[in-house]
Amino acid sequence: MSSPEDGFDEAYAETPPWDIGRPQSAVRSVFESRSFEGSVLDIGCGTGENALFLADRGFSVLGIDASPRAIEKARAKARTLDVTGEVCFQIQDALSLDDLDERFSVVLDCGLFHIFDDKNRRKYIASLDAVTAPDGHTIVLCFSDREPGDWGPRRISEQELRTAFTDGWTVETVESARFEINADQEGIDPSDDESVEAWLAVARRDNK
What we know:
Blueprint (H helix, E strand, L loop, with lengths): L7 H4 L13 H9 L6 E4 L5 H8 L4 E5 L2 H13 L6 E5 L12 E7 L7 H14 E12 L14 H7 L4 E12 L14 E11 L3
Parallel strand pairs: 1-2, 1-4, 2-3, 4-5
Antiparallel strand pairs: 5-7, 6-7
């Protein structure tokens, strides 16, 4: 059965617009401003910039992506860096996270939530249920409905985010943020040359 993530591997033959060669500033900010502890799962990790940043802060990080090319590039980066924590990368479908048979204190979704239609979004939230530890947190950085135009992924409203994390979750914060991009590719027409309107949400898994 095909996944919404299928087709992204071809994008990694070159440099996709979301691969900026550094961790997203919004991701850096949330981890620097809050006291998260424990293991981290980076879903849709791409070439590993966020995962490597977190590993360098001392976290034990598993980065997963459906794209073999992305994972290959992430592993190559990891081999060249001396990070403080542990980091590994593997190919994995985001809709089947229960295959990991592990729960994480922090789950990071940077740029994946907005690729799913309504049906697959429900599957995705169920998948997050399986890997977020009780009292653990899921962090989502996604495109916002405040970004004009119809290029790129679907726009997400604040209410959609809050509704998605209802049963078994407590949404702690939803804040306006920026999603940094490379705007040089054909078909990319952001309101800003370097970033687009985004939401940064933090949801806590209920203790059950």
